[in-house]
Design brief:
Length: 284
């Protein structure tokens, strides 16, 4: 099962996930052109350097899509390289739609017959949690993972994620974020022993927000993707503050960084990832 595979990778390599975000300034720092060819070189070098040293990588789809069909072709190559290097991929696409459209998104990213298939994807539930069923169903059929946005660190997210839903009903929390945690937990409940294949996206820099909402993200019984480590300010102290020491020790939190590793340049990526990973593999 995806949850067990990810947990095994985290146990072996540590909790770090490196986002492959080919920003213009990073391409320039690496001496690469701001083109699809530059993104290709950047991505394939990163995958090769990180192979065997981190649990997962997270390509950000938008940085490929901006180059049109050539960029999408590079994303296909990047995901193929992840498979070849046995490096778990979390494709950051944040898709969320209804009906047949969501089904098409699911087939694009979760069906192994697709050149864009990843080990897991990020999705948004803000057209209704049930609208994500095609992604959940296909993930179950093909042993893939799905991370649902729950509590993100951007300030704009609070107006939706922190909103109260009135009296709690059907076991769901009274905030939107709490409802998402409860529904992901319900999805994982029937998936057998071990970590579930369905997880959450919860920012590593949200501080006390979850506690103030009465939400415990770790109750989802699946992995939690926690962006914001490194350049955005989060380290082990912040992760423990948000999730608690038990979740860190149990390797439930997939701590995500990008610039803190990629800014080291292609020659320094592996060492930077190793150093940051080591700083996260301890709980006081």
């Amino acid at each position: 099962m995806f949850g067990a595979r990810l947990k095994a990778a985290m146990d072996e390599h540590g909790p770090l996930c490196v986002g492959i975000d080919p920003h213009d300034h990073l391409l320039e720092a690496w001496g690469l052109p701001r083109t699809a060819d530059g993104v290709r070189e950047f991505s394939l070098r990163t995958v090769a350097e990180l192979s065997g040293s981190v649990a997962a990588v997270k390509p950000q789809s938008a940085f490929y899509e901006q180059y049109g069909s050539a960029g999408v072709a590079v994303l296909e190559e990047t995901l193929a390289a992840c498979r070849a290097h046995e490096l778990i991929s979390v494709l950051d696409v944040k898709r969320g739609d209804i009906g047949s459209t969501m089904g098409a998104y699911a087939r694009a990213y979760l069906d192994p017959a697709s050149a864009l298939a990843a080990d897991s994807i990020t999705v948004s539930a803000y057209l209704g949690f049930g609208a994500l069923d095609p992604a959940f169903d296909l993930a179950e059929a093909h042993d893939r993972g799905v991370f649902v946005l729950a509590l993100t660190s951007n300030p704009e997210g609070a107006e939706v994620q922190h909103a109260r839903r009135g009296p709690a009903a059907s076991g769901f929390g009274d905030s939107v974020a709490g409802s998402i945690v409860s529904q992901v937990a319900a999805r994982n409940a029937g998936s057998g022993p071990g970590p579930g294949r369905f997880g959450l996206v919860v920012g590593a820099t949200i501080g006390s927000a979850a506690r103030e909402l009465g939400v415990d993200p770790t109750e989802c019984n699946g992995p939690i993707l926690a962006p914001g480590v490194g350049a955005q300010g989060a380290g082990i102290t912040e992760l423990v503050d948000v999730f608690g020491p038990e979740a860190i020790a149990a390797n439930q939190i997939l701590a995500t960084t990008s610039r803190a590793v990629l800014s080291a340049g292609s020659a320094g990526v592996r060492a930077a990832a190793k150093s940051l990973n080591e700083s996260l593999i301890q709980v006081g």
